[in-house]
Structure to design on (1463 residues):
């Protein structure tokens, strides 16, 4: 139903169309961190009675607005600044999430809303009625922005350029409104003129073509003039200003790279590869890079590692590396390739609405995957796909599902698309960061599934079609109304697929895009000797959260003695068992070689297998063409055969994981063989190391010979003549380099019968450190040394403590003393000869925390706190903060928690602020069901304040705070809070529980009429669309969060219609009303209508109640508990919140 | 080339030496006797010349002065002649050297034969034969090597063998790989430890144990103003290592003698300069190349001067 809209083409939610925007920043003050400038938007009204123009703007101080040179009145109101108003005692997250979603909705440009509402001067009304052009000129300034623009100003002597001060735009999703007023939507495209006046020693890098650079009259500054003629959304506009070094790409002169002073040699090396990525994408897409130029800027204190904007990308400076660094090289190249893929899909082609985001993320992720396959090989690609698949499966099973294409509003579904989540998925800005990461991951996996279905050739044709349509459209003038071709929608994309391939992929889309959840298979088999048939049983779990039922084809590969055979099973509702006829007889021909899937024929030692069965191994869904988790049971020898002879790295990795459960000498042998095999993919070998360590620990009593891997390592990396000394480093062979790094780390996990790390292993690692010699190596050994320290940390076991004695130096374990000696030396050497990205410091800090945790060293956060301070390299800070977070948890330290939370509020680096919340969420000091001295009212208030108003400048941070709040306190009112004196606090989600048959019918009856009157009113002013939608909503189950939001949103829409100016409830909310035109008081009438609707829904809900009873049983219990105390609280709680419309259901009003 | 300054220096000291020595009366060494005899002869020459010119008597001071002048004149001829002869790569002056010298000194050579044959000239007896003082044979160790056939005989003799033949004193080199590695490792470790301990002693420290701050002293973490620079740029040591490994593969033995630490501390200054120079060069060359290939990159274009608004 939603897709029909796409078929008809894009319908703008705004009563006007933007065609061109000028952004002029004429003053940037690094000292004061302020920006002064103006914007000018050229808009064409699309309705005759346009008298209000809504734009997005946050943080900006707006001085003056003129429309066609006439002064215009305006209101600035941002409900997201403070989500819940007043000193509400309301502290439950459900309430907050609803209010927050409503607040975001209220300013959502995709719904035609905005923070800035400009009244068109009455003189122009006639002009507007003729649908003539309007020019909106806004003067604004930004002072010490907390989000959107990030200033980096090192505190030292010298001019700003000498100090390397720079500023850049940043943010999560559409965040451009943080630094200039605009229509901050991905669907509102226009052409751009960008001007930046900066210090003569600085460079301003922005989107589009640099037309000219002109000195100001005093010759102290220069102005960069940019033109972007390709229609682009404001959200894809970016800026970076700093004393950058400029490097023109030697292969492609249109491409320019920028980095901070002194880093030019690194920049050269890092970007030397970029042209190959360009070539690859242009070739597979058979399409030129859409913009006339491309710029990469590497900046410090980046918000994210990679941010793609129209014709430029902003990277973290920490991606730069020299030719000596091995580990960072593939990572950085991946980032570059990712950024470039997003140039095509994401920047050039934008999206119609948030629910189409998955197409862009999917395509860019998918072509990035193709690049990976070509660059790093099929093994790496398959490994990556497997990794991503495991991640998304784990996340969905944990949280209950990721929905790629949420449908809101018009749906008839009874279930809220994301009722299992503690946040709304209706807006990108309400999403948890982790959810969004997983969302992107799922999107590209689904694209791969589509490719499996329609072939890569068709897939690329579809992309090419999208791109060529867009590039035709981009060269058109605005008047031709072609620009919407540059926006991709789910329906448009699917139509394209069906046109190109002629295949129907609806079932696939329905399964993976319109629905959340993954598939969980359990497989087992039996071999029927008489019938020579493999009886395969495949069960599914589709009742656990995050799962769904799969019906359709499923590929099973059976390796038999006579060869490998693919079978496609039809998974249906009730059939669990599948009979697969075998091709080979169990009588085996001993001399014969065994053919594999890839045509290779190998000799195998078949003595291990079951004499009666011809089966070597079985794989379910080997191509990963379902988003699934497979738990398959087969005997250990089958896993061993699979590990040794199956050529697919995914199969090998699965076999390794399965073998953990079979600690036998045969498993040991299979793993050691793999470890030694040089043709084997290095990641498989690395994984085998850890598995071998686990097996060795399980077999500790029967283990013979030297500790696992020791002789192997000696053979591979030590001198022939003196096996106790490692060869001088030579990392030319990367595969063995990675193995050399990993083996000691895995070995350190070995434990003897006393559960201690064997002395022999510890000495071995200490010797590796001692004899490490990198002087003749072409590459840096910093990662290797760091991993040796990790190995030391891995070897640490809990201290034997007598009566909790205080840890002092005297009772230090002698082994630990040796370890500590090394750590001290390494950490101190880092001060003199720092390693790349301070990897060694990071490992040392982690190791020290391990020593503290195991009781060898007194637990003390002071060291970590000093490393966590601003001014240390970011990796070091994060490692230190992680240790403090861990300390906070283990020692339940209120002081440290406060210290962390202060940093969340005050740290200059946005990424650190985000990361602290993230780490606290992942390693929480306590959780909702836990008793903890830390859990107190003050903390609740503090966190509440943080998410309510303290993080309004950064969407990501606010969502991080919400995640933390959820982890600590859950969805309902935190248990540590005292009971509210006034009894009831009501929450939407709990309304169902509140329903009291004796009250409800009455209120429904009372309120029936006002509902109609509101609707009529809406109709009368020409908002049929809204009306019909809200009619549909009558069907929605009000118990669910998001539909209710949609409901509110429609009501807001009605309230905000042009003909009734100022009735929207936000205006009363004590926001910054810069220039109030008319702030009408909250209309009781509108409230009433809302509340009445609610009652109506409750009524309706009753009918469905039984159906869903089972599902919600649990919730009900929960709700009843809070029921009474929460009810009465309500009227006081929300009178001014944007969410209030929904929540008001007080007797006084409904009477 | 190399002999010229050496020779002239010798001449200088010879003449200077004679000048100073002449004043000292209480000379007893054979060398002093030699100089005194020479001086006496010169005085006789001056006196006879004076007589020849018709003087009957002369004050002692006048004779001394004239003697001095004569001596310096002759010395100058000698020095200059030696220079000329060495200039042409000979060791012994020839007549032409003397002639050129005299011409150079403004002496009319052609008048010389006539003067030598003048009638009233006086002949003085040759000075008593006093041998050139024998420079004490200092440490002649071994026989001087005779010239090989391709070196002309007039070239100077080889110096004493001990001045150029090296006689290295070998200690039996440690060739055991294990010992070497062991030694290198422990040496490096000692240096590192000493260095870090020193740093820790001289600066602020942190400790893992509250009761003991000296056993495992950690140099205090100090924030940087620009943290990414130290974290990203390869250290000078690494840069140097990279150059070394690129240029030549060294063998194990020499490797063990140089510890990386020494290198880095010694060369840190110039290395830094080099790096920055290198950087400038590369950036310069980059933009230069750009111009050559006519790269039209807007960031390389010159900044325009502001337009002067004349409309107003």
């Amino acid at each position: 139903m939603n897709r029909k809209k796409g078929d008809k083409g894009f319908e703008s939610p705004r009563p006007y169309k933007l065609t061109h925007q000028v952004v002029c920043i004429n003053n940037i003050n690094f000292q004061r961190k302020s920006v002064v400038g103006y914007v000018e938007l050229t808009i064409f009204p699309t309705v005759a009675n346009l008298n209000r123009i809504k734009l997005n703007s946050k943080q900006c101080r707006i001085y003056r607005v003129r429309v066609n040179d006439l002064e215009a009145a305006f209101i600035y109101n941002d409900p997201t600044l403070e989500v819940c108003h007043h000193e509400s005692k309301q502290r439950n997250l459900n309430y907050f999430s609803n209010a927050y979603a409503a607040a975001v909705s209220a300013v959502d440009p995709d719904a035609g809303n905005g923070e800035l509402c400009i009244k068109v001067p009455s003189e122009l009304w006639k002009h507007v009625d003729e649908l003539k052009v309007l020019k909106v000129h806004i003067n604004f300034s930004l002072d010490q922005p907390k989000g959107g623009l990030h200033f980096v100003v090192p505190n030292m002597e010298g001019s700003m350029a000498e100090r390397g001060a720079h500023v850049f735009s940043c943010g999560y999703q559409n965040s451009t409104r943080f630094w200039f007023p605009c229509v901050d939507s991905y669907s509102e495209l226009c052409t751009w003129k960008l001007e930046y006046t900066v210090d003569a020693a600085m460079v301003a890098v922005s989107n589009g073509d640099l037309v000219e650079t002109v000195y100001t009259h005093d010759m102290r500054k220069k102005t960069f003039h940019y033109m972007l003629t390709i229609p682009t959304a404001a959200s894809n506009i970016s800026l970076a200003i700093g004393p950058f070094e400029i490097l023109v790409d030697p292969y492609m002169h249109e491409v320019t790279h920028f980095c901070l002073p002194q880093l030019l040699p690194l920049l050269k090396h890092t970007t030397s590869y970029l042209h190959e990525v360009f070539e690859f994408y242009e070739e597979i897409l058979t399409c030129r890079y859409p913009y006339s130029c491309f710029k990469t800027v590497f900046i410090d204190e980046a918000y994210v590692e990679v941010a793609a904007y129209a014709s430029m990308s902003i990277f973290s400076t920490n991606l730069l590396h020299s030719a000596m660094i091995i580990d960072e090289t593939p990572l950085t190249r991946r980032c570059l390739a990712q950024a470039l893929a997003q140039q095509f899909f994401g920047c050039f082609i934008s999206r119609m609405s948030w629910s189409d985001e998955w197409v862009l993320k999917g395509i860019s992720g998918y072509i990035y995957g193709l690049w990976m396959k070509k660059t790093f090989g099929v093994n790496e690609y398959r490994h990556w796909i497997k990794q991503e698949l495991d991640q998304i499966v784990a996340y969905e099973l944990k949280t209950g599902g990721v929905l790629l294409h949420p449908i809101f509003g018009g749906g008839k579904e009874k279930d809220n698309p994301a009722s299992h989540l503690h946040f709304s998925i209706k807006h990108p800005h309400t999403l948890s960061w982790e959810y969004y990461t997983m969302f992107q991951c799922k999107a590209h996996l689904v694209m791969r599934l589509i490719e499996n279905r329609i072939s890569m050739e068709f897939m690329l044709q579809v992309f090419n079609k999208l791109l060529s349509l867009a590039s035709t459209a981009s060269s058109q003038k605005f008047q031709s109304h072609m620009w919407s071709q540059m926006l991709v929608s789910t329906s448009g994309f699917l139509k394209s697929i069906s046109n190109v391939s002629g295949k129907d992929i609806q079932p696939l889309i329905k399964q993976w895009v319109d629905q959340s959840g993954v598939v969980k298979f359990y497989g087992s088999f039996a071999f029927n000797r008489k019938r020579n048939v493999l009886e395969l049983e495949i069960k599914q779990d589709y009742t656990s959260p995050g799962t769904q039922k799969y019906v359709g084809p499923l590929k099973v590969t059976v390796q038999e003695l006579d060869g490998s055979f693919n079978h496609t099973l039809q998974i249906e509702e009730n059939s669990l068992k599948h009979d697969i006829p075998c091709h080979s007889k169990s009588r085996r021909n001993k001399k014969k070689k065994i053919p594999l899937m890839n045509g290779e024929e190998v000799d195998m030692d078949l003595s291990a297998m079951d004499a009666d069965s011809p089966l070597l191994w079985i794989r379910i869904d080997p191509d990963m063409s379902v988003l699934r988790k497979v738990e398959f049971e087969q005997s250990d020898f089958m896993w061993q055969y699979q590990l040794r002879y199956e050529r697919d790295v995914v199969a090998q990795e699965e076999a390794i994981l399965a073998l953990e459960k079979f600690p036998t000498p045969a498993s040991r042998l299979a793993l050691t063989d793999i470890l030694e095999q040089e043709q084997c993919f290095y990641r498989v070998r690395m994984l085998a190391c850890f598995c071998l360590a686990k097996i060795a620990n399980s077999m500790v009593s029967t283990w013979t010979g030297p500790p696992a891997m020791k002789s192997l390592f000696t053979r591979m990396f030590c001198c022939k003549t003196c096996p106790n000394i490692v060869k001088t480093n030579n990392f030319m062979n990367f595969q063995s380099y990675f193995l050399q790094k990993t083996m000691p780390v895995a070995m350190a996990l070995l434990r003897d019968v006393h559960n201690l790390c064997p002395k022999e292993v510890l000495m071995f690692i200490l010797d590796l450190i001692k004899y490490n010699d990198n002087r003749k190596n072409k590459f840096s050994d910093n990662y290797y040394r760091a991993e040796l320290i990790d190995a030391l940390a891995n070897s640490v076991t809990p201290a034997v403590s007598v009566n909790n004695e205080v840890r002092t130096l005297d009772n230090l374990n002698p082994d630990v003393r040796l370890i500590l000696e090394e750590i001290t030396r390494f950490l101190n050497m880092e001060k003199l000869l720092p390693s790349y990205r301070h990897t060694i410091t990071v490992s040392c800090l982690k190791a020290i925390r391990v020593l503290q945790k195991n009781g060898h060293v007194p637990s003390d956060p002071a060291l970590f706190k000093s490393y966590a301070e601003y001014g240390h390299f970011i990796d070091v800070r994060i490692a230190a903060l992680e240790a403090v977070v861990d300390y906070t948890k283990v020692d339940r330290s209120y002081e440290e928690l406060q210290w962390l939370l202060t940093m969340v509020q005050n740290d200059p680096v946005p990424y650190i602020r985000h990361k602290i919340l993230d780490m606290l969420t992942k390693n929480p000091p306590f959780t909702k069901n836990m008793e903890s001295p830390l859990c107190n009212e003050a903390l609740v208030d503090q966190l509440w304040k943080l998410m309510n108003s303290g993080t309004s400048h950064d969407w990501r941070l606010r969502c991080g705070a919400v995640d933390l709040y959820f982890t600590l306190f859950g969805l309902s009112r935190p248990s540590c809070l005292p009971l509210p004196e006034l009894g009831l606090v009501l929450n939407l989600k709990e309304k169902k529980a509140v329903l009291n048959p004796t009250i409800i019918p009455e209120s429904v009856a009372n309120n029936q009429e006002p509902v109609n009157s509101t609707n009529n009113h809406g109709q009368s002013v020409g908002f049929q669309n809204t009306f019909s939608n809200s009619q549909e909503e009558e069907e929605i189950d009000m118990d669910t969060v998001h539909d209710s939001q949609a409901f509110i949103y429609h009501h807001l829409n009605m309230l905000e219609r042009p003909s009734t100016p100022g009735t929207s409830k936000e205006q009363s909310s004590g926001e910054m009303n810069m220039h109030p035109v008319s702030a009408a008081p909250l209309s009781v009438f509108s409230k009433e209508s809302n509340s009445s609707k609610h009652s109506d829904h409750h009524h309706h809900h009753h009918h469905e109640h039984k159906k869903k009873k089972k599902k919600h049983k649990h919730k009900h219990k929960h709700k009843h508990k809070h029921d009474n105390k929460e009810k009465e609280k309500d009227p006081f709680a929300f009178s001014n919140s944007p969410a209030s419309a929904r929540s008001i259901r007080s007797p006084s009003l409904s009477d | 080339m190399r002999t010229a300054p050496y020779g002239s220096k010798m001449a200088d000291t010879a003449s200077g030496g004679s000048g100073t020595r002449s004043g000292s009366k209480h000379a007893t060494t054979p060398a002093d006797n030699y100089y005194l005899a020479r001086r006496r002869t010169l005085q006789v020459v001056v006196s006879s010349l004076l007589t020849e010119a018709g003087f009957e008597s002369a004050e002692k001071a006048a004779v001394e002065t004239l003697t001095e002048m004569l001596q310096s004149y002759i010395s100058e001829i000698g020095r200059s002649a030696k220079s000329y002869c060495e200039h042409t790569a000979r060791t012994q002056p020839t007549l032409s050297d003397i002639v050129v010298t005299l011409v150079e000194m403004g002496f009319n050579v052609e008048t010389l034969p006539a003067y030598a044959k003048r009638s009233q000239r006086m002949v003085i007896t040759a000075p008593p034969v006093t041998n050139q003082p024998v420079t004490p044979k200092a440490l002649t160790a071994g026989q001087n090597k005779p010239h090989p056939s391709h070196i002309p005989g007039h070239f100077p003799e080889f110096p004493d063998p001990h001045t150029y033949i090296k006689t290295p004193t070998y200690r039996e080199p440690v060739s055991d790989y294990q010992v070497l590695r062991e030694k290198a490792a422990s040496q490096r470790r000692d240096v590192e430890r000493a260095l870090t301990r020193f740093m820790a002693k001289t600066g602020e420290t942190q400790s893992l144990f509250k009761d003991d701050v000296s056993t495992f002293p950690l140099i205090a973490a100090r924030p940087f103003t620009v943290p990414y620079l130290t974290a990203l740029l390869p250290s000078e040591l690494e840069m140097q290592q990279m150059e070394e490994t690129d240029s030549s593969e060294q063998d194990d033995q020499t490797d063990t003698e140089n510890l990386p630490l020494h290198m880095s501390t010694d060369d840190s200054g110039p290395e830094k300069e080099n790096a920055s120079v290198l950087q400038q060069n590369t950036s310069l060359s980059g933009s230069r190349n750009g111009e050559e290939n006519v790269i039209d990159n807007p960031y390389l274009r010159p900044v325009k001067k502001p337009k002067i608004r004349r409309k107003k």
